[in-house]
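Hypothesis: this fold can be encoded by more than one sequence.
Test: take the structure tokens below, design a sequence, compare later.
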């Protein structure tokens, strides 16, 4: 029995693979999905924020369009994904709707999590959905992603989403109940590994030899996903989803492997920002804004006295106090041209100055690290 408890985790990403969700008839396994929705509703009701990363678009689309998945070209799979995705997300909408939970479809490509400008866009949309108690249902945007620009598997997509939203727990629902010292299907002496504190070469090697039958991701992609997530301060669980209500089972002590996070999502993000090599500009702040940042707030345009450098949205910029001393770094929500236009401006004047509706903050506190002030 594992002693795992959901209690200390607030923001959860749940990854659902095709092998669990799609029945032998090639359609959504409705009863299983209803069970998952019951679990999601329970956790949601307890105050957890949830995001679901789901596969299944290609499998459902192949069924609807009569495509043989194993022997097709990329365009066929993309067409299948387009037809399948709409049914996939509709199924989630229905089962979550039974619990009065609103589902929102979000389709991502790697650029959305790896390019910093688009990363900010995706992050603020997802945060806004979570603030409104919506459950984002996320998949890769398969219809436009070609081989070279794909996440490739949804384990990795789920890890990137966890990093993006600073989740503290990622759950990879699998057809096996965790990591074993060898492939349990082939080796009777394989020992289950309940906890991984560090993803060593040995762990990667073990995972490389264990495959899952269906879907594109075996244990290797799960451990790689765990590596991305744990570095981002997000603990990762691999457990079996091949049962009804797998999240309740987990809460009741079902077997799993937990990969422990290194630090917290906030410390990981701040470490990354502090080490950013390319600082593209500087924001000179007034005393009020300096105090607000030190107290944990975000930077509003009104507190910016001057802007220097040449930067784009998503670039790293320094913040300087009234003495001109750098006291932190953050990801710019605005380009240097825009920042110059709205520096010193009250929030309700931003639209007038820019000519379009801008964002309310110049730097968001999640994307900000202050020196000599470890909060
Ligand atoms: N995005 C793909 C789909 O929805 C699945 C990718 C995966 O399972 O890793 O069909």
């Amino acid at each position: 029995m594992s002693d795992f408890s959901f209690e200390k985790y607030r923001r959860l990403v749940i990854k659902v693979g095709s092998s669990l969700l799609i029945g032998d008839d090639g359609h959504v396994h409705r009863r299983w999905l209803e069970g998952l929705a019951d679990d999601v509703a329970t956790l949601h009701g307890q105050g957890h924020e949830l995001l679901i990363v789901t596969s299944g678009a290609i499998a459902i689309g192949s069924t609807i369009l009569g495509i043989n998945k194993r022997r097709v070209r990329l365009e066929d799979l993309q067409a299948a994904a387009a037809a399948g995705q709409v049914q996939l997300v509709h199924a989630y909408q229905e089962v979550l709707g039974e619990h009065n939970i609103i589902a929102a479809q979000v389709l991502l490509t790697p650029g959305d999590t790896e390019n910093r400008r688009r990363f900010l866009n995706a992050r603020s949309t997802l945060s806004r959905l979570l603030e409104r108690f919506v459950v984002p249902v996320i998949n890769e945007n398969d219809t436009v992603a070609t081989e070279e620009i794909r996440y490739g598997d949804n384990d990795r997509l789920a890890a990137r989403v966890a990093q993006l939203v600073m989740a503290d727990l990622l759950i990879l629902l699998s057809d096996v109940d965790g990591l074993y010292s060898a492939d349990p299907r082939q080796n009777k002496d394989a020992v289950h590994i309940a906890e991984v504190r560090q993803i060593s070469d040995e762990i990667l090697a073990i995972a490389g030899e264990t495959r899952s039958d269906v879907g594109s991701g075996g244990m290797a992609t799960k451990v790689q996903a765990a590596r991305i997530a744990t570095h981002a301060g997000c603990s990762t669980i691999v457990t079996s989803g091949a049962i009804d209500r797998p999240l309740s089972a987990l809460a009741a002590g079902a077997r799993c492997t937990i990969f422990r996070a290194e630090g917290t999502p906030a410390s990981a993000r701040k470490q990354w920002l502090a080490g950013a090599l390319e600082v593209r500009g500087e924001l000179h702040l007034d005393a009020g804004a300096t105090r607000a940042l030190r107290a944990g707030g975000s930077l509003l345009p009104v507190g910016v006295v001057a802007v220097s450098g040449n930067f784009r949205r998503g670039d790293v910029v320094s913040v300087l106090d009234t003495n001109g001393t750098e006291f932190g770094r953050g990801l710019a929500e605005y380009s240097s041209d825009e920042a110059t236009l709205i520096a010193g401006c009250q929030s309700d004047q931003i639209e007038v100055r820019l000519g379009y509706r801008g964002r309310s903050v110049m730097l968001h506190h999640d994307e900000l690290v202050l020196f000599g002030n470890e909060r």
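The chain has a mean pLDDT of 91. The longest helix spans residues 74-97.
Hypothesis status: open.
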